[in-house]
Every structure is written in structure tokens, then in C-alpha cells.
Design a protein that fits this description.
Number of helices: 12
Strand content: 15-25%
Strand order of the largest sheet: 1-9-8-7-6-4-5-3-2
Structural class: alpha/beta
Mean pLDDT: 89
Helix content: 25-40%
Number of strands: 9
Radius of gyration: 19 Å
Length: 315
């Protein structure tokens, strides 16, 4: 099976970094230039095979069976809480505590386009196993029938998530952050970690919340980014360090990386990025896919995310 070799970079303001940004820009242009015979060959290429994913409780679960097992076997304390929003809507959230003797940082988990699924809850449990207080809000709280959230929306979850206003998402993250800060077991520092739609919201929260301690972006883009530009005026507001973890086979997201890197460098922001070759979008929750590349990407990416969070939130 192919390995997912990490390609990584740092905003270092060096000539070597500028050269790398140029290579990324050229690669993105090449991705967008697929046409004619080359496109036909690509379209006819066989799809990468699925693999059997071994159980590994040091990683977020990558199959539905592993999600069920992770939640059933967890020894950590997890509980549903209702965090009040300004309009009185309860923000339903899954909170999991680590087993450690000292106070812990809080990490807000932003779910993907599937809403607050059991997988997102299992990611929160994994973060707690790794030493963080994890809070996973349901951003669809109050958006479903009879005031319900993800569970009440059924097949309408994706549409409802796409309809969420930026201000609403930020307000819900602010409420979760404030709740976490007041927990007696918390050390007062907060990070955010999101996937896909949630990865983009992780970028957004770094822009919108100056007191955020760290932002982890799994295969998300800067809101409003294109292959040629990003909203530099908004990125100028970023205070928190950001790490991006990207799939190699994900041109929709990766074509926005060159202007993102260039803008973060220009604005003197901390942005670390890693791309895992041959893996697909959503690799963390789809570890059986891409003939082993998704599993390999997860094995590389999760420790990088943990190291980044500990570096910025444990001090």
C-alpha cells in the first residue's frame, strides 16, 4: 500500500519558503489545467482500494465499527451539557474530561458537514484520552424540528449546516469557549480543532476570536479563499497560531493554499502546514480509503495536531 509522505512547511520568511510557495502555486495551476486526453485518462483510472483498518486507540476512529467501540470502551467521563446562548437557545454539547491530576487545556471540536455525529463525539473522547478537556458543540442546536439539532434534521443536516451564518457559528464557539474557561478543571487556555466544514470554521474562529490559543485545521480553507486570492484584511486579525493538515488528493482545498501561505507570510502570522500525499479529503474519518493512504495520513496527522496543541496550550 502507498505511504502518505508528509510535505510540510512553516511561515519562516526565508528564500527557501518563498521558493516552496512558488512550487505550490505551480502545482495548483497544473491541477486546474486538466483537460483533453489527460482528463480522460484520469477519469478512467481505477479507484484506490479500501483496506482493513486495525484497531488503534491512539487515533480517532476511522470506521463506523471503531466509532462504536471507542465510545463503548471509553473510561473517561463524558456528559451532555446545554450551554445557554444569548437568545436562550441551549447549545447541546458533548464534553469529555481527561484523566489527569492537573488542570487541562480546553479544545473545541468543530464537527464536519455531517453534524454532531458519533464520530465527532469519539474524536472528543480521543482528545480527552490525549489530555484535553474536549467540548463538541452541535452547531445545529435549535435549527431542527421542535428546536432539535443534528439528530432531528435527518437528511437535512448538510443543507442546514451550509445555511449557518458566520456570526452564528462564532457566537456558538464563543459560548463554548466561555463555558470551558469556567470549568474548575480547565487551565484557562482554549484551542479549536475542526474537520472539513469544521476546518474552515477553525480558520474563521482564528480570525474572529483574538483570545484563541491555537487552531487546528483538517482539510479546510480560509473562508472566502480562491485559487488566486484570500481576504488579507480578515487574516490580519489572526492572533492564534494555526496548523493545517491537508489531503494530497484534494484540489478543491489545496488550490487555495498558495495564496493562503503567501498572505500569512506577508502578514507575519504563524501558519504550519502539512500535506499527505495520495490521501483523500476526510481521511481522518475514512481511514479504510485510498488503498491505505488515508490511514497513513491519519497516523502522521494526529500526532502533529496533538504536538501543536500541547505546544501552544500547555505553557
Amino acid at each position: 500500500m502507498p505511504s502518505s509522505t508528509p510535505i510540510h512547511g512553516f511561515v519562516s520568511f526565508s528564500s527557501s519558503f518563498r521558493s516552496r510557495a512558488g512550487r505550490l502555486a505551480r502545482r495548483s495551476a497544473a491541477v486546474g489545467a486538466c483537460f483533453g486526453f489527460a482528463c480522460a485518462l484520469t477519469a478512467q483510472s481505477p479507484q484506490p482500494a479500501a483496506i482493513d483498518v486495525p484497531w488503534d486507540d491512539s487515533l480517532p476512529p476511522g470506521t463506523s465499527e471503531h466509532v462504536e467501540r471507542a465510545l463503548a470502551l471509553s473510561s473517561r467521563h463524558g456528559e451532555w451539557v446545554h450551554i445557554p446562548l444569548a437568545d436562550g437557545t441551549p447549545l447541546e454539547s458533548w464534553v469529555v474530561y481527561p484523566e489527569r491530576p492537573d488542570r487541562a487545556p480546553v479544545v473545541l471540536v468543530i464537527h464536519d458537514i455531517r453534524g454532531l455525529s458519533d464520530w465527532a463525539r469519539a474524536v472528543a473522547d480521543q482528545l480527552a484520552q490525549d489530555g484535553f478537556i474536549a467540548i463538541a458543540p452541535d452547531f445545529l442546536s435549535g435549527k431542527g424540528p421542535d428546536g432539535g439539532g443534528t439528530a432531528a434534521l435527518g437528511n437535512g443536516v448538510g443543507q442546514a449546516i451550509r445555511a449557518l451564518a458566520r456570526e452564528d457559528v462564532v457566537a456558538r464557539l464563543d459560548a463554548a469557549m466561555n463555558y470551558g474557561r469556567e470549568l474548575p478543571a480547565a487551565n484557562g487556555k482554549t484551542g479549536v480543532l475542526g474537520f472539513c466544514w469544521g476546518g474552515t470554521q477553525s480558520f474563521e474562529y482564528a480570525i474572529s476570536q483574538p483570545e484563541l490559543g491555537a487552531s487546528v485545521v483538517f482539510y479546510g480553507s480560509v473562508p472566502g479563499a480562491t485559487a488566486t486570492s484570500v481576504p488579507e484584511d480578515r487574516l490580519a486579525n489572526v492572533k492564534a497560531p494555526i496548523v493545517g493538515l491537508f489531503a494530497g488528493n484534494d484540489a478543491r482545498i489545496n488550490t487555495t493554499l498558495p495564496p493562503t501561505i503567501a498572505a500569512m507570510m506577508k502578514l507575519n502570522k504563524t501558519f504550519e502546514y502539512h500535506t499527505f500525499e495520495a490521501s483523500g479529503h476526510g481521511f481522518t474519518s475514512r481511514q479504510a480509503g485510498m488503498d491505505g493512504a488515508n490511514l497513513s495520513a491519519t497516523r502522521h496527522a494526529w500526532p502533529l495536531a496533538l504536538t501543536f496543541l500541547r505546544r501552544h496550550l500547555e505553557k
